[in-house]
Specification:
The chain has two domains: about 200 residues, no CATH class; about 140 residues, no CATH class. About 25% of the residues are buried. A two-stranded parallel sheet has the order 1-2. The protein is built from 14 helices and two strands; from the N terminus they run αααααααααααααβαβ. The chain is mainly alpha-helical. Helix 14 links the parallel strand 1 and strand 2.
Length: about 350
């Protein structure tokens, strides 16, 4: 014997069922093209809560119409689409801090594609905003309440939010952002990673004593100065570069190494492991120049966290010891936040191609 549902609940519940079915179909389609696996959708309880909450908020504040269920689903599919395009193009999971990189994306796209991208993304949201029921502001206030509470939880109590999420969510895979998304969902992990970032900012606050940091740097310069034996120092970061001689069992008809390269380095080359592959050159630069791992705790690209204030990395140390520190970059000066980053790292001079 089933309990009869009031008529006013039947349509919304049907719309929810159709939404979940459409999201499942979407996830399986994206998997076919190399996106996140859809095998573990049944584990994504945190994601189900996020989806139902966001859908309910927009359904609640929109004017009644036959398009209401479709319009309420726009923000959800937009978030999913951004996640999946980012993952397919860059091989990384989208985080909220990546929004700061949008201007760079628009710069490298041809103008027609940039205009098309902005129009394709904004048009559905403009339609959505036009259909909100502004005549009843109390509905807007009530609908916004869950979103405000989530934002407050992430920003005001990030560690508590992250701990609560961990106790409720399925496994968060330390070594793979992608697997964590597959087990907990796109929106759920987006909130969790932002809470982690906010918590990291709180925890490093005691170490952001500028006066003590600068004093420690001056002490280091004074200690190294008397022992310094000046030699030229060159860091050359190359895109997609490897030594083919490292492959075992490969024979060459002639040496793959240029004679001048061989003359300069011979067999004294060393190896280092890059922290990234595919579109993350600045991460390798950061590790080389600053001598610390690129953990992506504050941003998906460490350079984006620089403001230009001295970070006392190797170029800054060499400058203080009397070196002329120069950076030459083959691309646009505002890509990867290069200018503030290089300034903060300690380069006194920066050069970029005239074409950019």
């Amino acid at each position: 014997m089933s309990l009869p549902l009031p008529d006013r609940w039947r349509k919304p519940l049907l719309h929810v069922v159709l939404l979940l079915a459409a999201l499942t179909l979407y996830a399986k389609l994206v998997e076919v093209y190399g996106g996140f696996s859809a095998r573990l959708l049944y584990l994504q309880w945190p994601e189900l809560i996020c989806v139902l909450c966001l859908y309910g908020v927009f359904y609640f504040v929109l004017k009644p119409s036959s398009w209401r269920p479709v319009l309420a689903a726009i923000p959800i599919f937009a978030i999913y689409l951004v996640h999946d395009v980012f993952y397919l193009v860059y091989g990384k999971v989208f985080r909220l801090i990546n929004v700061s990189e949008l201007p760079e994306l628009l710069q490298i796209l041809p103008l027609p594609y940039a205009i098309l991208l902005v129009a394709a993304f904004l048009t559905p949201f403009l339609i959505l905003l036009a259909r909100i029921d502004y005549a009843r502001p109390w509905r807007l206030a009530l609908g916004a309440l869950p979103l405000v509470l989530v934002v407050l939880g992430v920003r005001a109590a990030p560690d508590a939010f992250a701990a609560g999420f961990q106790s409720f969510a399925h496994e968060i895979v330390i070594y793979s952002d992608g697997k964590s998304v597959e087990q907990n969902g796109r929106m759920a992990m987006l909130l969790y990673r932002e809470a982690q970032r906010a918590g990291t900012l709180e925890r490093i606050a005691p170490y952001r004593d500028r006066a003590a940091f600068d004093a420690g740097f001056r002490d280091e310069v004074a200690r190294i100065g008397p022992r310094l034996q000046p030699r030229d120092v060159h860091f050359i970061v190359l895109e997609s570069f490897l030594d083919p001689r490292l492959f075992e069992g490969v024979e060459f008809s002639r040496s793959p190494v240029h004679p001048e390269f061989e003359r300069l380095f011979g067999d004294v080359l060393g190896l280092s492991l890059s922290p990234v592959f595919g579109g993350g050159t600045a991460q390798a630069e950061f590790e080389l120049l600053c001598g610390v791992p690129a953990f992506e705790k504050l941003s998906s690209v460490e350079f984006n966290a620089f403001t230009g204030s001295p970070a006392h990395c190797l170029p800054g140390l060499l400058s203080a010891l009397g070196y002329r520190s120069v950076a030459s970059n083959a691309y646009k000066p505002n890509f990867f936040n290069a200018q503030p980053a290089y300034q903060g790292i300690g380069f006194a001079e920066q050069y970029y191609p005239a074409e950019f």
